[in-house]
Amino acid sequence: MTIAKDGPTTTRHFGSGGPAFAPPSGAEAELTRLAPQTGAAFLLRAGERLVVVDPTGEQVSDFFAVMADDHDEWLSSGRTIDYANSTLVTTGSVLYSNRSTPMATVVEDTCGRHDLLLTPCSQQTFDLLYPEFQGAYHPSCFENLATNMGRFGVEPDRIGTTLNIFMNVWAERNGELHIDPPTSRAGDRFVVRAEADLVVGLTACSAEKSNNGLCKPIDYRIEA
């Protein structure tokens, strides 16, 4: 099956997490693809850039990081929100650690809507918030982060609130939160520059409700 999306026609492949579009040709072919409901972890050295791309649109990617030389220093959504006096994360935003150290700076953002409030989905998320699954096993961002970051010695309990790239969360005046479909379109990019050596975990989010009902892939690459 082929589908045109405001550009060249691409081949559509179907997997356990739903449809995914084939990686684009040309320079962007250097991107690594995370299949739906999967994740990865890697070292991101100071000065390197992590490019995260939504290849299909309306797909969230959970990002978490710890210091490479000290896993007790980790990405703090609270510190990041405090020092910016805002929950908005976009170009120019600095991501701080629990010790108030700059960990990364956002250097490009073509979407403009991301979330720093909600934790990565877990099995308990689906047990509590998705009663239609009746407690059955479900892939989750927490599991994907813990499994992949564990290869670098990061303990599961060290994984806290993530930066949920492309996630569309907003609040009523009474504080009630809403999760609407991501505003990202195919090809939207979010780029951070590491300010220190980091162990980074990244996912293609597993929660259907966060991704307009369908889990899709995420592309990324590291640039020197």
Calculate the terminal CA-CA distance, rounded to whole Å. 37 Å
Q: In order across it, which strands form the biggest sheet?
A: 4-16-6-14-10-9
> Low-confidence stretches at least 5 residues in length (pLDDT < 50)?
1-27
Main sheet summary:
6 strands, antiparallel
Count the DSSP helices: 3
Rg from C-alpha positions? 17 Å
Write a short abstract of this structure.
The protein has helices spanning 77-84, 123-129, 141-149, and strands spanning 2-3, 10-15, 18-21, 32-34, 39-44, 49-54, 61-67, 70-74, 94-96, 102-109, 163-165, 168-171, 177-180, 188-194, 198-203, 218-223. It has 224 residues and is mainly beta. It has one domain (30-223).
Keywords:
five-stranded antiparallel beta sheet; 36% strand; 11% helix; six-stranded antiparallel beta sheet; disordered N terminus; mainly beta; 224 residues
Characterise the protein shown here.
- The structure is a single chain.
- The chain is mainly beta and 224 residues long.
- 11% of the residues lie in helices and 36% in strands.
- It has one domain.
- The chain has three helices and 16 strands.
List strands and helices in order, with pairings.
Layout: E1 2-3, E2 10-15, E3 18-21, E4 32-34, E5 39-44, E6 49-54, E7 61-67, E8 70-74, H1 77-84, E9 94-96, E10 102-109, H2 123-129, H3 141-149, E11 163-165, E12 168-171, E13 177-180, E14 188-194, E15 198-203, E16 218-223
